[in-house]
Amino acid sequence: MAASPLKNLITGGAGFLGSHLVDRLMRSGEKVICLDNFFTGSEENIKHWIGHPYFELIPHDVTDPIKLDVDRIWHLACPASPIHYQFNPIKTAKTSFLGTYNMLGLARRVGARILFASTSEVYGNPEIHPQSEEYSGNVNPIGIRSCYDEGKRVAESLCYDYMRMHKIEIRIARIFNTYGPRMLLNDGRLISNLLIQSINGEDLTIYGNGYQTRSFCFIDDLIDSLILFMDSSNTGPMNLGNPEELSILEIANLIKSMSDKKVNIKFLKELEDDPFRRKPEISLANKELGWRPRIMFNEGLKITREYFQKKLTSGK
Ligand code: NAD
Ligand code: UDP
Predict the structure, then answer these.
(1) How far is the CA of 22 from the centre of ligand 1 (A)?
(2) Which end of the chain is more exposed for a tag (fewer CB within 10 A), N or C?
């Protein structure tokens, strides 16, 4: 007799990362429950699965408990863009703490394995470069980013305590900056802002002098790593990201060179608590999962640019 398909719960499944994960699990013949409060997610991202017998959409806020029968929980619910998580910072902290608490409680009740989407932001403004999992970070506990950074840190701590106290199977993924199709037009992060500005022939906005760095991973590579990680026996925390580090100015110049319109770079006031540099050390993921990102930055940028171009033309 064939094994019955795995039952997955994806919180934040209508969002950017979550909806790509929904696609991948559905295409592998697994069952998916997508749970979302639609704060930054949209039905548009998952509408192609509505009506499929293996797919269920539950509008729900993770700060409220829920009872479901599942084998695996992919806990992604939380706004990821600074402008969105700073919109209501108290709600962001609640989503991280209470949302993770509720999902760990569910995992305990039904014996599900749970993967928690943590972030490179747990390293704050890092004094160690590149960042490896052993580094415990340099986070401002009272700054404007702390609702998110500290929220993710306490959520990681909850995951470990549930594992130690209740033997829950946890996977903590420290995800670094990820980009690709389905980022919102009003997402407010670097790649979407600059690509949209370049398509519209507007100035490319850089906060500060542009010497700060980031390392951007294309969505397809990131989803590969999440799936391999969930299937592995390692609990993490595990860095998942692309170690190709570029300054914001280099990225702006690259996007400028891809544009058929003449665009300029406009320097704006630097953001409060903006980390100066960020690059993942990914040897753990490489050793444990045999994973490393494959999509080159200029290739991923081209795909994402085409996505925004279509979106802006269709007006949807
Ligand atoms: P996103 O904003 O596109 O998706 C988050 C989803 O969670 C949205 O669909 C939103 O509506 C939903 N959500 C938010 N609060 C909720 C709540 N209280 N209850 C139920 N649903 C809620 O962001 P994303 O880029 O897809 O990020 C997904 C996860 O990955 C987040 O936890 C984020 O912290 C983490 N992450 C993302 C990145 C990145 O670069 N995109 C980097 C590091 C970590
Ligand atoms: N950034 C920028 N212009 C923008 C948006 C972002 O210069 O229009 C900078 C931002 O100050 C930060 C970097 O790009 O230094 C990455 O920002 P993003 O919001 O994409 O991600 P995060 O800061 O959360 O890593």
Answers:
(1) 14
(2) N
Distance 190 CA to ligand 2 centre (A): 5
Q: Is residue 144 part of a domain?
A: yes
Provide the domain limits for residue 33. 7-179+217-242+274-294
Could you report the per-residue pLDDT of 98-124, keeping only the tens digit for each? 999 999 999 999 999 999 999 999 999
Alpha helices in 167-296 (DSSP H): 190-200, 219-231, 248-258, 283-289
Q: Of the residues 85, 101, 123, 148, which is catalytic?
A: 148
Q: What is the best residue among 190, 204, 212, 265 to mutate for testing ligand 2's pocket, by most ligand atoms within 8 Å of CB?
A: 190
307 is catalytic: no
The amino acid occupying position 116 is F
* pLDDT tens, position by position, 223-248: 999 999 999 999 999 999 999 999 99
Domain presence at residue 50: yes
pLDDT of res. 3: 78
| pLDDT tens digits for range 3-25 | 789 999 999 999 999 999 999 99
Give the CATH number for residue 115: 3.40.50.720
Number of domains in the chain: 1
Residue 235: alpha-carbon gap to chain centroid: 18
C-alpha to C-alpha distance for 224 and 175, rounded to whole angstroms: 12
* Ligand 1 binding pocket includes 41 (Cβ within 6 Å): yes
